[in-house]
């Protein structure tokens, strides 16, 4: 189980390969990559800055991964989230879950990104033709996270 | 033992400040009490507690406004998160 | 929308990068990789051979991807499935779905692998210490596919 | 116009044959009829129709045993699929 917050980009292929290495019991690998879109809520986005709460962010992500490991039979999971300045098309986040079977890997991966979106202290500020603005939290993200309540 | 307070994202911008350290103010025992103390500074501070959906963390755990705080704690105020 | 059946291995990083390239509206990329497990139904597996029905396999996969595109708002999707001799740890299949938002990408990716497992003409034969055997279809796969019935 | 028949996986192994081409047998109008014709060969062919969960495709579409077949069609018999 590994959690990283970094400015640098990540290579999905290498990360998935590392997750699988020497794990002969893995049968299913599900991953989610979030990407900066060139448009958001109807406005063009030329760049984005991701702020976070150093220390708490890592703790929150590790807690989510631990919770996923309690809810599902997982072999391993990683979460990598970028901070700092990003451009459209840039990767923001990788969530990857390895399991023996696909059902639990899909559920845990979706759980992790849903929880991350509502509970990990990151904030997006995007630059549009109308100026810079903080991205507003989405009710649809709260609803997605709510599905996983015990 | 100082109290450390952090402000993030739009909250940081509205207050024009990212963090501060101060002795635990007399009579402050929870997050609500700290917000009351900060409001006395006037200006943007007066409106901090009224920010819609203001979130708070004590020692890096999200909490409600009734969460106790004491000297040495780290308290943070921020808007709803939007990562991922 | 792309479907490939091949003996050669595939590089997940390159395939996902190709899927994303010049698609500024993509915000979410969900992928599934199936891997040969070193054990199956309690027996060690030393190798596996995947047989398929040339022609029908490609048609069945393309039909599934088309159906996913009708059910969800997708930007693109790929399915790559290997055939021939595979060893434990080898990649078998990649299903990757790109969308503007994550909900539809997760649903479409899981739908595609569930459908593939029950409707695409592939057959696994695995070699165990007790000899070679054809892998039996799983009731759990039928149940997973059944969830997606209209 | 010949009828093409394909056999896959365990079905292919049981019959010892992967494919064949033959003229449409007289009186055969559907998959069930073709299975009846093949059963007359005796041996493993007699048991083809009784293979548990036997699947069939006509012109590369999965079908039931009532599916019509004609000269020039491609018919395939195989066990439940296990890819992915």
UniProtKB/TrEMBL annotation, chains A, C:
Pfam families in UniProt: MoaE (PF02391)
Record keywords: Molybdenum cofactor biosynthesis, Transferase
Reaction equation(s) it catalyzes: 2 [molybdopterin-synthase sulfur-carrier protein]-C-terminal-Gly-aminoethanethioate + cyclic pyranopterin phosphate + H2O = molybdopterin + 2 [molybdopterin-synthase sulfur-carrier protein]-C-terminal Gly-Gly + 2 H(+)
Enzyme superclass (EC): transferase
Domain of life: Bacteria
GO molecular function terms attached to this record: molybdopterin synthase activity
InterPro entries, alphabetized: MoaE_sf, Mopterin_biosynth_MoaE
E.C. number: 2.8.1.12
Pathway: Cofactor biosynthesis; molybdopterin biosynthesis
NCBIfam families in the record: PRK10678.1
Self-association and partners: Heterotetramer of 2 MoaD subunits and 2 MoaE subunits. Also stable as homodimer. The enzyme changes between these two forms during catalysis.
Family: Belongs to the MoaE family.
UniProt protein name: Molybdopterin synthase catalytic subunit
Protein species of origin: Candidatus Accumulibacter contiguus
UniProtKB/TrEMBL annotation, chains B, D:
Keyword Nucleotide-binding part of the UniProt annotation: yes
Pfam families: ThiS
InterPro entries registered for this protein in UniProt: Beta-grasp_dom_sf (IPR012675), MOCS2A (IPR044672), Mopterin_synth/thiamin_S_b (IPR016155), ThiS/MoaD-like (IPR003749)
Keywords: Nucleotide-binding
UniProt similarity note: Belongs to the MoaD family.
Database matches in NCBIfam families: moaD (TIGR01682)
PANTHER family per UniProt: MOLYBDOPTERIN SYNTHASE SULFUR CARRIER SUBUNIT
Name this protein carries in UniProt: Molybdopterin synthase sulfur carrier subunit
Organism of origin: Candidatus Accumulibacter contiguus
Record gene name: moaD
């Amino acid at each position: 189980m590994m959690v990283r917050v970094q400015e640098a980009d990540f290579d999905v292929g290498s990360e998935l390969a590392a997750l699988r290495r020497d794990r002969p019991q893995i049968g299913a690998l599900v991953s989610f990559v979030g990407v900066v879109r060139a448009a958001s809520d109807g406005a063009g986005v030329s760049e984005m800055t991701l702020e976070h709460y150093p220390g708490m962010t890592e703790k929150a992500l590790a807690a989510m991964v631990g919770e996923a490991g309690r809810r599902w039979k997982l072999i391993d999971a990683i979460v990598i989230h970028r901070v700092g300045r990003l451009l459209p098309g840039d990767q923001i986040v990788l969530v990857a879950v390895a399991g023996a079977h696909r059902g639990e890997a899909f559920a845990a991966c979706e759980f992790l990104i849903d929880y991350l979106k509502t509970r990990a202290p990151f904030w997006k500020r995007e630059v549009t033709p109308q100026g810079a603005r903080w991205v507003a939290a989405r009710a649809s993200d709260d609803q997605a996270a709510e599905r996983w309540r015990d | 033992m100082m109290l450390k307070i952090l402000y993030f994202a739009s909250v940081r911008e509205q207050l024009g400040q990212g963090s501060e350290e101060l002795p635990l103010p007399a009579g402050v025992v929870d997050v609500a009490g700290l917000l009351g103390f900060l409001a006395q500074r006037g200006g943007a501070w007066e409106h901090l507690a009224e920010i819609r959906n203001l979130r708070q963390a004590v020692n890096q755990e999200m909490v409600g406004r009734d969460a106790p705080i004491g000297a040495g704690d780290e308290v943070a105020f921020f808007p709803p998160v939007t990562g991922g």
